[in-house]
Amino acid sequence: MKKLIAFTGVFLIALTSINAQSDSKMVQLGAKGGVNFSKLSGDDFDDVDSRTSFNAGLVAEIPISERLSFQPEVFYSGQGFDIAERDQDNVFDTDENIEYQLDYIQVPLLLKVYLVKGLSVEAGPQFGFKIHEEFDSQPNDDGGDIEIDNDDSYVKDFDTSVALGTSYKFDNGFFLSARYNIGVTSIFKDDTVFDGVDGKNDVWQFGLGFMF
After folding, report:
1. DSSP at 10
2. Which domains does the chain have, with CATH numbers?
3. Residue 70 CB burial class (10 angstroms; 0-12, 13-18, ≥19)
4. 109: which strand partners?
5. Which DSSP state fits 150?
C-alpha cells in the first residue's frame, strides 16, 4: 500500500509538466451520482461477490494552478458485499443474493491533474463514516432487513481508503467519472471475534455529475 501511494504521488507530480489546463480559474461547486460495485478484499475475503448500490453527493473544485486542482467531496456511498445466493443444491432458501450492507458518508480529499482540456486524473485519501449496517435477504424488496445495532456491530465506525480515478468534464458543465477506492486498513473492530481478520473495503464507482 505504501508503494502504491508513493507511486501515485510521483505520477501526479510528473503529470504537472504536461501541457494541459483546467477549464476554469474559479472555484466550482457541483453534484454527482452514480453506481457502486463494492466488496471486501484481503486474505480472508477472496471469494465474496460484489454488492451493487449507488453513490450521491456534492463536489467542489478549487484551482491551484492551470493544471492542478484540489477537489474535496462529501457523498453517500452504499457499500458492503454479497454473502450468498441460491445454488444448484438449493442450499440457501432465497431466490436472491443476501447482502451485507455497509453504508457510509465518504469524504475524499483529492489532488486533480488535467492531462488535456477536460480530461483529468485524481488521487488522494478518503475518510468514511459508517451510518448504517444491516443484513438484507431480499435486497430487491422491502422485506428481509435485519438492522445491526452499533453496540452489536463488529465493523468500525470509521474507515480510511485511497481513491484513484479519472474524469472528463464537458464544456456545458457535465462530467463523467470512474474511480477505484481501496481500503487501507481492515474494517473490523479489535478485541472481537473478527480481531485479526483481513477485510478492507474495495469499491468501483462510475457516475455522472454537473458543475455549476
Report:
1. H
2. 2-211 (2.40.160.20)
3. middle
4. 72
5. G
| pLDDT single digits (tens) 50-60 | 999 999 999 99
User: Of the ranges 5-14, 64-73, 126-135, 139-148, which one carries the lowest mean pLDDT score?
Assistant: 5-14
For 44, 73, 97, 165, the CA distances from 29, given in Å and listed in that order, are 40, 10, 38, 19
Reference 79, options 106, 117, 116; nearest CA is: 106
pLDDT in tens, 152-207: 899 999 999 999 999 999 999 999 999 999 999 999 998 888 887 889 999 999 99
Strand partners, 103: 78, 132
The grid coordinates listed for 45 are 475475503
Kindly state the average pLDDT of the residues 27-49.
Answer: 89
Cα 190 to Cα 23, 41, 46, 147, 154: the distances in Å are 46, 18, 21, 21, 8
E strand spans, 19-157: 28-41, 49-63, 68-84, 98-116, 119-136, 145-147
d(CA 171, CA 185): 39
Task: Enumerate the β-bridge partners of residue 147.
Answer: 134
**How many alpha carbons fall within 13 Å on the CB side of residue 112?**
30
